[in-house]
Design goal:
Blueprint (H helix, E strand, L loop, with lengths): L4 E11 L2 H11 L3 E5 L3 E5 L9 E5 L4 E9 L2 H13 L4 E7 L7 E6 L5 E6 L18 E9 L2 H12 L2 E7 L5 E7 L7 E5 L4 E8 L3 H13 L4 E7 L6 E6 L5 E5 L13 E4 L3 H4 L10 H8 L13
Parallel strand pairs: 1-4, 5-8, 9-12, 10-17, 13-16
Antiparallel strand pairs: 1-5, 2-3, 3-4, 6-7, 7-8, 9-13, 10-11, 11-12, 14-15, 15-16
Keywords: Dioxygenase, Oxidoreductase
GO molecular function: dioxygenase activity
Protein name: Glyoxalase/bleomycin resistance protein/dioxygenase superfamily protein
C-alpha cells in the first residue's frame, strides 16, 4: 500500500507531576518551550521545523495522549480517513482544522489497542536553526516505540492501515520475536512495537547533531546526576547510538544519532538475535540488556487506551 504518512511529528504525554516533568524536558533534556499555560506545555527541538515534538499535559493519571504523524496534503488526510473508515477503524474525530500551535488539518483515530493517533497536514513550519558543533541539544524527534501484549497484530495493523514498512526485527532465539522497527520514509525507523506485558509507552528518541554532540549530551546528563538507564552504545538495527534515561514520570527517553538511512529499492528486513550481545550494542560499551532495564522500559499500564485526550 502506498503510504500517505510522511514523517513523525510529536508525542504527547500526560502525568500528575507536570511542573517537574516540564522542568526536566526544558532545563535538563534540552527542548525549547514554545507555548504553555498552567497545565499544558508545547516543546520544540531547536533543529526541527515541527512546531513541537513533545506535548506535556497535567492529568491525575499518567498516560500517552497522542502519537502524531504528518501527511503531505489535506487531500491525503481525507484519503487516509476514507481508508480507515473502510477498514472499520474507530475515529476520534473526522478531519478538521487544528487549534494547536501551527494549526493544520488532521484526523484522529484509535489504533487496534486503543492508542490515539493523529495524522495532520498543512501545519505551519516553525522557524528553526542549525544546531552548532558541540551543542548537546536535540535536533529532532527521531522515533517512538510502544509496548504491546499483541505485537504481531499491532505491527500488522500499522502496516495495513497506515502503510508503514518493516525495516528489521529483533528476536530472542528462533521462536520469539520481540521488537519490530517500522518506517514511513527512508529513516530506518520512525515507529516501532515491542513485545511487553501491556500496552504502554516504551521510549521516545531524540536525534543529536552527531557523535560528539551525542556524547556531550550523555555527559551533561551524568554531570547533572541523571541516572543512565542503558548506554552509551550503538544498536545493530538502525545502526544508531543510544543513551537511555527515565523522565520524571518514568517514561524512557533516548539520545541518539546517525540513524541509518535506507535505500527503499534494495533494503530487505533482517532478523537479529539478541542472544548475540553485538546485536544490542555493536560497540560493547553499554552494560548488557537485563531484566531491570526491560522492566523500566515496559512502563506502567497506559491509562489512556480508547479514551480521547481532552485536547
Amino acid at each position: 500500500m502506498h503510504t500517505l504518512i510522511t514523517h513523525l511529528r510529536h508525542v504527547d504525554i500526560a502525568m500528575p507531576n507536570f511542573a517537574e516533568q516540564r522542568q526536566f524536558y526544558t532545563e535538563t533534556w534540552g527542548l525549547t518551550e514554545t507555548a504553555n499555560d498552567a497545565e499544558v506545555s508545547f516543546l520544540a527541538a531547536e533543529g526541527s521545523p515541527e512546531q513541537y515534538v513533545v506535548r506535556l499535559r497535567a492529568d491525575a493519571e499518567k498516560r500517552t495522549d497522542l502519537l502524531a504523524f504528518g501527511a503531505a496534503t489535506a487531500a491525503d488526510v481525507d484519503t487516509l480517513t476514507a481508508r480507515l473508515i473502510a477498514q472499520g477503524v474507530r475515529l476520534v474525530h473526522e478531519p478538521k482544522p487544528l487549534d494547536t500551535p501551527g494549526g493544520g488539518y488532521a484526523v484522529r483515530f484509535f489504533d487496534n489497542e486503543g492508542r490515539v493517533v493523529e495524522v495532520s497536514a498543512d501545519v505551519t513550519p516553525r522557524r528553526h536553526r542549525r544546531i552548532e558543533a558541540r551543542e548537546p541539544v536535540p535536533v529532532r524527534l527521531s522515533h517512538v516505540l510502544m509496548n504491546s501484549p499483541t505485537p504481531e497484530a499491532t505491527v500488522a495493523w500499522y502496516i495495513r492501515n497506515l502503510g508503514f514498512r518493516l525495516s528489521d526485527t529483533m528476536c530472542l532465539g528462533s521462536s520469539r520475536e520481540i521488537m519490530w522497527f517500522l518506517r514511513c520514509n527512508n529513516f530506518h525507523h520512525s515507529f516501532g512495537i515491542v513485545r511487553g506485558p501491556h500496552a504502554a509507552f516504551h521510549h521516545a528518541s531524540f536525534e543529536m547533531r552527531g557523535i560528539d554532540e551525542y556524547m556531550r549530551g550523555t555527559g551533561r546528563m551524568r554531570r547533572l546526576g541523571i541516572e543512565r538507564l542503558w548506554g552509551p552504545g550503538r544498536h545493530r538495527a538502525g545502526d544508531n547510538s543510544f543513551s537511555y534515561y527515565l523522565d520524571r514520570a518514568g517514561n524512557t527517553v533516548e539520545y541518539t544519532t546517525e540513524l541509518e538511512i535506507l535505500d527503499e529499492d534494495t533494503w530487505h528486513p533482517h532478523l537479529y538475535d539478541l542472544r548475540d550481545p553485538a546485536n544490542a550494542d555493536q560497540w560493547g560499551t553499554a552494560d548488557e540488556m537485563n531484566e531491570f532495564i526491560a522492566a523500566k522500559s515496559h512502563n506502567d499500564i497506559d491509562r489512556g487506551l480508547f479514551v480521547a485526550p481532552p485536547l
